[in-house]
Design a protein that fits this description.
The protein is α/β, with parallel strands linked by helices. The protein has eleven helices and nine strands. The chain has two domains: 3-197, Vaccinia Virus protein VP39 (Rossmann fold, 3-Layer(aba) Sandwich); 207-266, Helicase, Ruva Protein, domain 3, CATH 1.10.8.100. The termini are far apart.
Length: 267
């Protein structure tokens, strides 16, 4: 889908890009092909796409032979997409992904999104914590946001999102996407990342894990055990010093061990 096609579709359907939804439509056919290529998605895979917009990625996925469930928050775009890409393997849901409840998120093999930058963190955290069977995630994000997504322990940018991403899999920055590949052009440079699930993990980073990590980071300046008192005996058993640790001191693996131990104590 090129720039001329994007502008034509918008004009014909009287659609204006909405700032409130962070809409910058991908309009470079080579870039969309590269995104699908690095995603590792194969024919026959069941794919969730968040924020399909005009369907630049959707079209490529359908042509590849995938089943695609596209969740779109903009009512006009959700109505238009099945008309421009009429295919039985495409299901469009007119809803905010953070509120959608009528799909089984565990049924998908992959998640892909030209992610709305204003909602990047909650969207990624929901995908990781609730889509228990996905093998890979492929996202277009602000280039600067990668530093937060892939942040390491003991750094200011390390937080719940970086813990969840690291607990889930391996984060890889694939390539940069220039501003002129979008209409209208965004203010920042974008980049494509993939996150591939670890083959073996102590426990899955599910919603309970997300809630625990979020709790531990709820007051960053406080000691971790002040935010989560039940963590103290577990941290001690792991050979750590609970009275001195802050949330940013623990690795993703240590958070998984903490979660596993607390969960077993609750059974």
């Amino acid at each position: 889908m090129n720039r001329e096609t994007v502008i034509r579709l918008l004009e014909q359907n009287e659609i204006l890009p909405a700032n409130k939804f962070g809409q910058n439509f991908l309009c470079d056919d080579e870039i969309t092909s590269r995104i699908v290529e690095v995603s590792g998605i194969e024919p026959g895979d069941n794919v969730l796409e968040v924020g399909p917009g005009l369907g630049a990625l959707t079209e490529k996925l359908i042509k590849k032979g995938c089943s695609v469930t596209a969740v779109e928050i903009d009512h006009k775009l959700a109505d238009l997409l099945p008309k421009t890409i009429g295919d039985p393997n495409l299901r469009v849901i007119d809803c905010d992904f953070l509120k959608v409840s009528d799909i089984d998120l565990s049924s998908f093999d992959h998640a892909i999104s030209n992610i709305p930058y204003y909602a990047m963190t909650p969207i990624m955290m929901r995908i990781i914590s609730e889509m228990s069977n996905i093998r890979t995630m492929t996202f277009m994000v602000e280039d600067e946001a990668i530093n937060r997504i892939a942040a390491k322990p003991k750094t200011k940018q390390y937080g719940p999102l970086s813990v969840l991403c690291s607990a889930f899999g391996t984060v890889k920055r694939e390539f940069t996407v220039p501003k002129n590949c979008f209409y209208p052009m965004p203010h920042t440079t974008s980049a494509v990342i993939t996150i591939k699930r670890h083959e073996k993990a102590l426990v899955s980073p599910d919603k309970g894990f997300m809630d625990l990590v979020t709790l531990c980071f709820s007051q960053r300046r406080k000691k971790l055990v002040n935010n989560c008192p039940e963590a103290k005996p577990v941290l001690a058993s792991l050979g750590l010093s609970p009275d001195t640790l802050r949330a940013e001191d623990l690795t993703a693996m240590q958070y998984l061990e903490l979660y596993d131990a607390i969960r077993k104590d609750m059974i």
